Amino acid sequence: MLDVQYLQLLAEQYPSIESVSNAIVGLNATLRLPKGTEYYFSDLHGEHEAFIHLLRSGSGVIRHKVDELFGQSMLEADRDELASVIYYPKRNLARKRRACPQGFDEWCEITINRLVLVSREVSRKYTRKFVHRAMDEKYEFVLDELLLTDDTDADKRRYFREMIDTVLVAGIAEPLIVALCHLIQQLTVDKLHIIGDLFDRGPRPDKILDELMKHHDADIQWGNHDIDWMGALAGNRVCMMNVLRIATSYNSFDVIEDGYGINLRPLSMFAAQVYGDDPCARFQPHILDENILDPIDPQQAARMHKAVAVILFKLEGQLLLRHPEYGMQGRLLLDKVDFENGTIEIDGKVHEMLDRRFPTIDPEDPYRLSEDENELVEGIWQSFRHSAQLRRHIEYIYNHGGMYKVINDNLLYHGCIPMDENGEFERVKLDSGTFSGRALLDHLDKRVRQAYYSGDQNSVDLMWYLWCGAKSPVFGRDRMTTFERYFIEDKSTYTETRNAYYRAYEDVGACEKILREFGLDPAHAHIINGHVPVKHGENPVKAGGRLFVIDGGISKAYQSTTGIAGYTLIFDSHELQLAEHRPFRQATATETASTFTTIRVVEKMPHRLLIQDTDAGTAIRSKIAALGELLQAYRDGVLRPRQ
To answer: 336: which DSSP letter?
Structure first.
């Protein structure tokens, strides 16, 4: 018997025998519905246009639904158009109105009928209550009636016909079409999993987060680039300057200034003053996307880039000197520079510096910020901490994210589970103890939250270790050679060795070991991983199907490596599917699913999965059991129902 106090709390929500009985009936019926479709994306890196297109199109699934419904009754060009209307209804309505004003009402009528059929198809997995929540409340009555009308009954057909005629006469056909399209988009993607790295390189991660926040069920497994931004807002100045270093190096000024309202004018003025006569050849930005709202001259961007990088290396040195337990003394490089001769000694070898202009560095105390640099850093920090939009997004990432997630027999994480060459989980020594495997990720999850919510300084500093520490599970390399790539020609100094995990994850035994560590049965569980782009020709399916690497290069920066433009893993009630995407361009957003996406089945389920087979089903059964005890308490007179 459950605690009476718990039952009393439950009775607040279900105050009568009838309300309890109705809930039990509804929940039992829900268990028999098909499992909703889950979508897994990784390493979005600010590519908002491509991601939003994939989300609106269900990574090609919506087009396949259109083909299934209308393959025998519509020409392919008409199916292309219908799919495009679903993805971008407002744009296509405006285009159609201009192209054929005389036949526009007739086109709207036909389109509404077709969209209703698609809506019925994608809503079959859900309860009526769930579908209602996904509807635009302004058109809830009309949508509900259109979706539930029985076309086999003559009276109902007349009712349906009259309703659409009235919609046309009332002039609400266009907003109704938009509402139907948004409903289809929402119902196609039941759960949305982001396996890390929303930020950096691409133009507008803020727009990706705006889109995620509209979705009814999304979660995020933190990646190293997310941790960097989270650390910045938690007060880690090294993370903050690294955010700006990447932004200036990839010409991402729109997201910094327009997206988050962070004032870069003081940085621009400082860079112009200190590096105005410096060619900054090693700091020219990668221009993958043109800024629209805040264009900055590339040479000025290079000056800003160098100013930020120098400050970053100073602040990093200060942090690492505070934390010798990180084992990152090899990253203390400014004190190894011979500023008079323009050389640096690393691992006993002397290298010529490719850039010798460091007007703000005191050779006697190279990690000390100048007064102007210190003032600049604190001014930028005030701009970061007062950005309401940035705080809103970072808090969403905290509230909907974690180091990993276990759901429906799948283990999701961004980087790696640190392992040694013998296939054992690496023991990672931190200021708070030594951890490995699942315990390491659990501990780091807690520390990341402490950094933001309690301001614990050691936890704030630890955010930088997570970005680039040798045993960080979101980094997964022995070191980060940012300094060497800027200043040293010898490419042998750029070597970053991946953690042994990235060799072990090809092995069935290693993947099974990881799955068991997280309480999963290796016989039917999977690991879903991101972080390392899958090279052109490489199979993203590892260890006989136990692990999927879904970083396929949605970021333009990686597409030359991957040869494609990203993956989506799709888990519906029948199978696991891997969608492979080609580069997206907004100008070709109406192209067909077959030209943009290829979908292949990677695993069929032994039977169609129902909600009762999922984690949600387990939770529902627990709730049914509790409601059953509440019902019995009412009947036994232990609690008094309120009629």
So the answer is: G
413: left (phi over 0), alpha (psi -120 to 50) or beta: beta
DSSP 16-31: SHHHHHHHHHHHHHHT
CB of 545 closer than 8 Å to CB of 553: no
Distance CA 389, CA 400 (A): 16
> SS in 3 state form for 373-413?
HHHHHHHHHHHHHCCHHHHHHHHHHHHCEECEEEECCEEEE
DSSP-based three-state secondary structure for 602: strand
Range with the poorest average pLDDT among 100-109, 143-152, 192-201, 402-411: 143-152
The residues, any chain, with a CB within 8 Å of residue 511's CB and separated by 6 or more, are: 505, 522, 527, 542, 543, 546, 547
Buried b (16+ CB within 10 A) or exposed e, 415-441: bbbbbeeeeebbebebeeeebbbbebb
Kindly tell me the sign of the dihedral angle through the C-alpha atoms of 13, 17, 18, 20.
positive
Q: In this predicted model, what pLDDT tens digit does every residue of 396-411 receive, in sequence order?
A: 999 999 999 999 999 9
In the 8-state DSSP scheme, what is residue 549? E
**CA 235 to mean position of chain CA atoms:** 23
Gyration radius (Cα) of the chain, Å? 28
State percent of the chain over pLDDT 90: 82
Between CA 572 and CA 604 the distance in angstroms is: 10
Q: Decide the pairing of beta strands 428-430 and 567-571.
A: unpaired
**Eight-state DSSP code of residue 218:** E
Query: Residue with structure tokens 């009814």?
Result: 216
CB 210 within 8 A of CB 390: no
**Dist. CA 611–CA 142, nearest whole Å:** 29
- State how far the Cα of 570 lies from the Cα of 581, in Å rounded to an integer: 13
